[in-house]
Amino acid sequence: MTHFIDGDWNLHKRILNFCVISNHKRNSTGKRLESCLLDWDIKKILTITADNASSKTKAIDYLKSKMGHWGNGSLLLEGKYMHIRCCAYIVNLIVRDGLKKLEKSILCIRNAVKYVRSSPKRLEDFKSCVKKEQIECKGLVVLDVPTRWNSTYMMLEAALKFEKAFWRMGEDDECPYISWFGEDESDLEDRVFYDVTLKMSVTLHPASHTKFHDLIAMEEEIEDLLMEEEEILSETQTSKVLKDMALNMKMKFKKYWGDLDKLNQILMVALVLDPQYKLGNLEFILKSRFENPEDAVKKKNEIKEILNKLYEEYAMPPPPPLTQSSSYCYSDTTTMNTSSSLSRRGKK
């Protein structure tokens, strides 16, 4: 899939190719990418978004080595920032690390929802319980996709609204609801991460200019959770679980986004290109992260330098200057045209 902006500044999304990759070795994936670009005559690539698997990194390294021989400025910024690690995928990893402590609880809720959605009869029984509990809520419970944590969030959010209906269903001795439980799977947590996941997954409008802000928002949310739990004088079981969750999430966050020098700098360039923020907003954010203000200014200048180089890569070359001979020919042609028009007038 590719994204590009046309001459009228409209964002477009196109699926270029579906293909089977026989294995996940470096050359297999890299050659497929190379072949696709050649087939579509695409000569310039700024970034390629892929997950964090080592095979993907090797594939992009292979592609960079080949594109380096294409010439004509095909390798933008020498390919230094070509690999963008999928932000939504990393958010998923961060949240999953935080939710390991809640696997059993989430599994119970998932099984309860499975029971309700497993047959029309059970769904009708559940609706009856909802009515008896006088729950005023549009919609019903939804089953998640365990590999997509944001769908688990939606499942938990919906199930919470119908908690009393589930309790009533469990109180019915003739209902097989209680005996239903017993399976295995996992996953969920805070609203900020759910919102960020949705923002990072959009395909029909630009999102790159907000990603750096989203990373900062997630980091602040984790730090706030840690601070809140540390301020609790008597550590309860709940606060201990939440603290462990926050610590796990912090470790995973730092692994991918903790060091700004290791972060793909294009994410900060995209922020600067947004007219709402520009360099001033980036400097403000950086000063809140660096103890030494000079380090923040240094990083800002680095981003500005990348932005200037990127502009030079895309800027249209100026037209060649007129030489003396071409200027002479141009004057000669003008004189000839003028003379011929005068002679035509004379004949009238």
> What is the β-strand count?
4
Q: Please identify the structural class as seen in this structure.
A: mainly alpha
Note the gap between the termini.
66 Å
Biggest beta-sheet profile? 2 strands, antiparallel
**Helix tally?**
14
Low-confidence stretches: 182-189, 325-348
How do the strands of the widest beta sheet line up side by side? 1-2
Estimate the global geometry from the Cα principal axes. globular
Helix content: 55-70%
**Proportion of residues in β-strands:** under 5%
Mean pLDDT: 79
Radius of gyration: 30 Å
SSE arrangement, N to C? EEHEHEHHHHHHHHHHHH
Domain hAT-like transposase RNase-H fold: 203-314
Region (Disordered): 317-348
Biased composition (Polar residues): 323-348
Protein name: Zinc finger BED domain-containing protein RICESLEEPER 2-like
Could you explain the architecture of this structure?
With 348 residues, the protein is mainly alpha-helical. Helices cover 61% and strands 4% of the residues. The protein has 14 helices and four strands. The chain has helices spanning 26-39, 54-67, 87-99, 103-117, 120-132, 149-161, 163-171, 191-200, 208-231, 237-257, 266-273, 278-289, 293-314, 324-347, and strands at residues 2-5, 11-14, 48-50, 83-85. The strands form two sheets. Strands 1-2 form a two-stranded antiparallel sheet. Strands 3-4 form a two-stranded parallel sheet. Strand 3, helix 2 (54-67) and strand 4 (83-85) form a beta-alpha-beta unit. It is globular, with a radius of gyration of 30 Å. The relative contact order is 0.08. Residues 182-189 and 325-348 have low confidence and may be disordered. Residues 323-348 have a biased composition (Polar residues). This is Zinc finger BED domain-containing protein RICESLEEPER 2-like. Keywords: DNA-binding. InterPro entries: hAT-like_transposase_RNase-H, RNaseH-like_sf, ZnF_BED_domain_contain. It comes from Prunus mume (Japanese apricot).
